[in-house]
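Encode chain A's predicted structure.
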Amino acid sequence: MGNNKKEQLKHIPAREVNAASTAKKREEHQDKQKNQGELVVKWIFGVLVALAIIYMIWSMFIVQ
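Encoded structure for chain A:
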């Protein structure tokens, strides 16, 4: 790095780069977690509906 002020102004401090990088990674991770969470909730409700249907069919055969 030179003593020239223009050269010094071009340099971006590492802490600013790291802070921006960390914030971006955090946002991406939160989006990924949100999408995975929604998928898990959909699977849970799907399984519960399937079990409810199976239970209804089973109970109809038991009652007869």
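The helical segments are 5-10, 14-63.
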